Amino acid sequence: MSEEEPVDKKPEIEESCQPHCSHEWAEYRACVKRIENDTTGEAHCTGQYLDFWRCVDHCAAKKIFQTLK
Fold first, then answer.
1. Considering its fold, how many domains does the chain have in total?
2. For residue 60, what are the CA distances in angstroms to 2, 6, 23, 43?
3. In this predicted structure, what is the pLDDT of residue 6?
4. Residue 1 confidence (pLDDT) above 60
5. What is the pTM of this model?
6. Domain range spanning residue 49?
7. Are the C-beta atoms of 21 and 55 separated by less than 8 Å?
């Protein structure tokens, strides 16, 4: 049996999936641009940000599970 520490591949896999989600990222950046001058503090881009990470998670899930032993 190997005594090596396991390496978490998740960050690497998520990074490789981010280009796949460029549309969601563009939507988030557009929202940030729209609200940058908001003085009320009530505007936010949480929905767009979560949409981006949902896309990344969907892309990464099957790749992550393939690396499990």
1. 1
2. 27, 19, 16, 30
3. 81
4. no
5. 0.82
6. 14-35+42-67
7. yes
